[in-house]
Structure formats: C-alpha cells, structure tokens
C-alpha cells in the first residue's frame, strides 16, 4: 500500500538497485493511471538515472505497451501498476531487455536485498556520469505493431462493447481499434485509479455484470473487459455470457498454429481445460503443460520456442510479442475470428468449450498440507485414478480431473474441477470441498 508500505523515496532506491543488478545503461519506464503512479515511476527513473542509466519515460501505458517498448528498444523495463488491485495499492512489474521476465530467481531477490541494504545504510553513490531522462510516446507504434500480428483486413463490421474499468484499456483501445470496421461502445474509459464504477478485475464475475447487461441492451456482437493495466482481456458473447479463457486459449492457439503452417508448441497451465491440448493436437501442434504463473509460462515459452501460451486467468502470451502477455492481441484474434465468418460468437466458441468446469473455488484452510494429504488419501486407491504434483495436487480420472493448490500468500486452498458433464463435475466438486473444509 502507498504510502504505508512504500513511497517515492523507496521507489528511487528500487530504480538504483534495478540498474545495479541488471547492469543496464538504459531502461524504459511506464505507469498506469493510479494516483500514486506518476510520482513513484518518476522517483524510480531518478534513482536509475542517478546510477548512470539513460531512462526513456513512456508515461501512461498498459503493461503490454511497456513490454512492446522493452522489446522494440531492447531495454530493461519497469511498469508501475497494481493491475486489478484497489486504488491504495501500487507495485512494479520488471523485465529485462526484450521483455524477458524478472522473477524471484532471476534478479528480483537481488534487487530487493540491495534496496534493503541501502535502506539500512547510506543511499547509493551517484554515478560519475548520471543518465538522462527522455520522454517518448509509444502508443501509435504499439497499436501498429499489434495489427501486423493478426489479419483484420477483411472482417465484417462488428458492434463491440468494451469495459475498460477506468483502467488503461481506456487509453489503448481507441488507438488500437482506430480504422477497424467496429462500432465501439465504450464503458468506463475515463482513466481513474480510484475505480469509481467497479474493480478493474474481470476475473470476478461481479465485475462483468455491467458489460453483460450493456451487450444485451446494445444487441452487440461481443463484449470485452480489460483489467486495470489492460494486460488481461475477458470476453462475453452476444448473449452476454462469459466465454471461458480456456476457450479463448484454444481459439487463439488454432489461429496461431494456422499462421505458423500448422505446426508449433503451445503452452498451457495445468488448470486450463482439457479442450486446450485437444485443440492444439487437432491443429497439428504440440501442447506443453506447465505450472500456474507468469514466470513459469514465460520460461517455458523461451525454452521450447513456443508460438503461443495461455492461462485460465486470461493471460495470453505470444512468441511474436517477445513471449510476453498481451490481452489486446488476444482480443484482436477474437475479432478476426468472429469477423471472418457469419455466425455468432457463442456458436464459434462452442467447439472450443467442451467440458463442464467449476471455476476456481477458494477455501480458507489453516492446515493446507494436512487437508491436501486427506484429499490425496481419499482418491489414491480408486481404480484408474492418477495423481501428479507439478503444481499442488492434480487428480485425474477417466472423465474428470481436479487440481488443489495452496496460495503462496494467503491461508487458502484453490480448487479447480472439470468433467465431461455438469452432474459429474458438481459431484466431484462437492466431494473434494467436503474433504478440504472438514475441521
């Protein structure tokens, strides 16, 4: 939280430590629309310049716009945002040159340790030759680059409602959609980091209600909802029904495989639908299953040379976007797929949405290992059932699977269940929850 847990003086030290750990002589910095973001990002930039790095300030931007700048300029980057979290929060998403991730094991721990050291002692000395601060607008180039990655030249006219949630989608969508045959109905495009209308977290169904209603009222072809920093995009169909991010992953995977000659690797995390690897194989690709999380997906993208990756949380990663996640490019793929045929979106995605899923269900549990062990024991002896521990506990039967994962930050167990039909899914969900929630 700002300023209770961190402020501009701490951000300045982070900027210096980022330069020190990465060895960068130049970086790029952007920020979202939160009230604290301009001050924090400016302080970070001053700290980086004081250590000798030239800083390109791109100002207001979405997180994937910062990744675009990092990739295009070949520079490490820092994006100031707390994504979908409440207004009093803020944070930093860091990357190396080419939008390569900076995670706990790839520099973040060193940056934190160095910052803490400087807090306890004296501030770092200034470099003999301090760096410069230069402002640069990247929005137009970002939009143009996205349009080189998906063919939208022959789509039919579409009416699309976009809920930006007062986040950075209100900044990027007008420029990205300019020139396309779209009747755009904007919702909450005013940049306001206090989020006066609803939280900018479309993963919570409550935050999709306004969009769903507006799509129905407008008779629109689809609706799009972006989170606060606009790196995630959620889709609702012409009926106002949410489209599963797994279905979007499968749809985009099929399109990216076709774009790459019907071959390539596609990454999916272990709680995406069975539909995803099935569609990948049907379209000539090779699916690779990985742990949940941004850094794991990016690592697998890089190590396998994957062309695309998707997560249940509506993060979509593209090889041709520096392996980084961009909800906007996924949205353009949906527009291209829908606009390239005459049917409604609900019919288009039905072939990619083949199973009944529970969605993620959180349970507050004091003894996470104990409850997980109880679930494992209950299913281990059943015929035809297999388990694995790639990320939490995954149990798989002939026509169902579930995953039970502990939260890294809260006393929660997260359950995802999928089955070939709704009754089987509901029965399995209730059985596992009863075991998890037993005192």
Automatic annotation (TrEMBL):
Q: Its gene?
A: manB
Descriptive protein name? Phosphomannomutase/phosphoglucomutase
Q: Where is the Alpha-D-phosphohexomutase C-terminal domain?
A: 360-434
What are the alphabetically sorted keywords of the record?
A: Isomerase, Magnesium, Metal-binding, Phosphoprotein
What does the record give as cofactor? Mg(2+)
Pfam families with a match to the protein in the record = PGM_PMM_I (PF02878), PGM_PMM_II (PF02879), PGM_PMM_III (PF02880), PGM_PMM_IV (PF00408)
* MF-aspect GO terms: intramolecular phosphotransferase activity; metal ion binding
Q: Which residues form the Alpha-D-phosphohexomutase alpha/beta/alpha domain?
A: 4-118, 141-240, 250-355
The record, for InterPro entries, names: A-D-PHexomutase_a/b/a-I (IPR005844), A-D-PHexomutase_a/b/a-I/II/III (IPR016055), A-D-PHexomutase_a/b/a-II (IPR005845), A-D-PHexomutase_a/b/a-III (IPR005846), A-D-PHexomutase_C (IPR005843), A-D-PHexomutase_C_sf (IPR036900), Alpha-D-phosphohexomutase_SF (IPR005841)
Source species, domain of life: Bacteria
Give the GO biological process terms.
Answer: carbohydrate metabolic process
Give the family from UniProt.
Belongs to the phosphohexose mutase family.
UniProt entry tagged with the keyword Phosphoprotein: yes
What organism is this sequence from?
Answer: Streptomyces lavendofoliae
UniProt keyword annotation of Phosphoprotein present = yes
């Amino acid at each position: 939280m700002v300023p209770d847990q961190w402020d501009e003086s701490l951000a300045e030290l982070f900027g210096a430590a980022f330069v020190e750990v990465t060895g960068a002589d130049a970086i790029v910095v952007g920020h979202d629309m939160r009230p604290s973001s301009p001050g924090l990002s400016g302080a970070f930039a001053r700290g980086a310049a004081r250590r000798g790095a030239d800083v390109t300030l791109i100002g207001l931007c979405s997180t994937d716009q910062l990744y675009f700048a990092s990739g295009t300029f070949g520079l490490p980057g820092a994006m100031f945002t707390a994504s979908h979290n409440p207004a009093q929060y803020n944070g930093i998403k860091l990357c190396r040159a080419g939008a390569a991730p900076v995670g706990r094991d790839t520099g973040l721990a060193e940056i934190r340790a160095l910052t803490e050291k400087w807090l306890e002692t004296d501030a770092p000395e200034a470099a003999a030759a301090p760096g410069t601060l230069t402002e640069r607008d990247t929005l137009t180039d970002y939009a143009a680059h996205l349009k080189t990655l998906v063919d939208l030249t022959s789509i039919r006219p579409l009416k699309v409602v976009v809920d930006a949630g007062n986040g950075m989608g209100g900044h990027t969508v007008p420029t990205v959609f300019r020139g396309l045959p779209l009747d755009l109905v904007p919702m909450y495009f005013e940049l306001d980091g206090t989020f006066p209308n609803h939280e900018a977290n479309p993963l919570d169904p409550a935050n999709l209600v306004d969009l769903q209603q507006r799509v129905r009222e407008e008779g629109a072809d689809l609706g799009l909802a972006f989170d606060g920093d606009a790196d995630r995009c959620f889709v609702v169909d012409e009926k106002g029904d949410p489209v599963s991010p797994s279905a979007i992953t499968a749809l985009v995977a099929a399109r990216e495989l076709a774009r790459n000659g019907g071959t390539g690797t596609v990454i999916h995390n272990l709680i995406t639908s069975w539909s995803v690897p099935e569609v990948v194989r049907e379209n000539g690709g090779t699916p690779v299953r990985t742990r949940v999380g941004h850094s794991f997906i990016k690592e697998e993208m890089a190590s396998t040379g994957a062309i695309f990756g998707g997560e249940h949380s509506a993060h979509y990663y593209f090889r041709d976007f520096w392996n980084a996640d961009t909800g906007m490019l996924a949205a353009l793929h949906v527009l291209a797929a829908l606009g390239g045929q005459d049917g409604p979106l609900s019919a288009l995605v039905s072939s990619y949405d083949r199973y009944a899923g529970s969605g993620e269900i959180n349970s507050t549990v004091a003894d996470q290992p104990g409850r997980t062990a109880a679930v494992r024991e209950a299913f281990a002896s059943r015929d035809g059932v297999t388990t694995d521990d790639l990320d939490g506990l995954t149990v798989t039967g002939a026509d169902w699977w579930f995953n039970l994962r502990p939260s890294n930050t809260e006393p929660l167990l997260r359950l995802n269940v999928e089955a070939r039909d709704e009754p089987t899914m509901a029965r399995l969900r209730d059985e596992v929850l009863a075991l998890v929630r037993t005192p």
